[in-house]
Amino acid sequence: MLTAITRNVSPSMGQCELTYLERVDIDIALAQEQHARYKEALETLGCKGISLPVEPDLPDAVFVEDAAVVLDEVAVITRPGAETRRPETHSVAQALRAYRGLVYIEAPGTLDGGDVLRIGKQIYVGTSGRSNRAGIEQMAAALERFRYRVTPVPVHGCLHLKSAVTLVAPACLLINRAWVDEPYFQGYPCIAADPLEPDGANGLWVGDAVVYSAAHPRTRERLEARGLRVVSVNVSEMEKAEGAVTCCSLIFEAGG
After folding, report:
1. For residue 230, what are the domain limits?
2. Is 172 an annotated catalytic residue?
3. How far apart are CA 194 and CA 136, in angstroms?
4. Omega prior to 59 cis, within 30 of 0
């Protein structure tokens, strides 16, 4: 069974870290309601939900994906690039301990889970403002015994690698070619996000469907035209915090 770890929205989310967006007011009550609908969508697609306690003093804590990378054999506990976000990893590590052995990224390495895209035994890691070469090298060394191949990928104009490219079906990618160079993913079929929806390259493949933001209807049409089932969710308030559908959960097979 798939397990989905989430964390409810912090009342302080309005003080979140921002890199590319201007700060605007976030409706916390609406964000909490949207997050609840997001969790319901995951459960409908077969995920057993584990909801971590709210962290009132950690504005970005709803974005649990950045705190860990969960693979079949092990979980990598990250060291987020934003110093204010590093305390988020403690409770995520505690939750994952019941399911996986843990390895940790240590200083001077930094790594955000949002920069990590796994396709089978191939792992791509964005060299972004949040994940540095030392963190990527530590991850590669930790995963070598499990025969994962780790490839750094430059990203430009966006926060994380998965802002620019995500897996939306077996070996099929959704990509914004303006933010990441497609040749890194040679051999994989790619669906391009609509140019009018630059944030539209973020989709969450769960079971037989893609959980996808309601903010990108043009790109949704492209996904559906390729025969993909799309489950639409409104995450407008999380998007104001530079979040997206992949950011809000850690999904894995509980049995490893």
Report:
1. 2-253
2. no
3. 30
4. no
- CATH code (residue 69): 3.75.10.10
Number of domains into which the chain is organized: 1
Per residue of the chain (256 residues), what is the pLDDT tens digit? 899 999 999 999 999 999 999 999 999 999 999 999 999 999 999 999 999 999 999 999 999 999 999 999 999 999 999 999 999 999 999 999 999 999 999 999 999 999 999 999 999 999 999 999 999 999 999 999 999 999 999 999 999 999 999 999 998 999 999 999 999 999 999 999 999 999 999 999 999 999 999 999 999 999 999 999 999 999 999 999 999 999 999 999 997 5
Distances from the Cα of 81 to the Cαs of 17, 53, 107, 135, in angstroms?
A: 11, 23, 10, 10
Q: What pTM did the predictor assign?
A: 0.97
In the set 16, 47, 247, 248, the catalytic residue is 247
Which of 160, 190, 216, 248 is labelled catalytic?
160
Instruction: Give the integer Cα–Cα distance in Å for 193 and 211.
Output: 15
Asked whether 7 and 38 are in contact (CB, 8 A), the reply is no
Sheet holding 250-253, edge to edge: 47-52, 2-7, 250-253
What is the 8-class DSSP label of residue 56?
A: T
158 tagged catalytic: no
Separation of first and last alpha carbons in the chain: 10
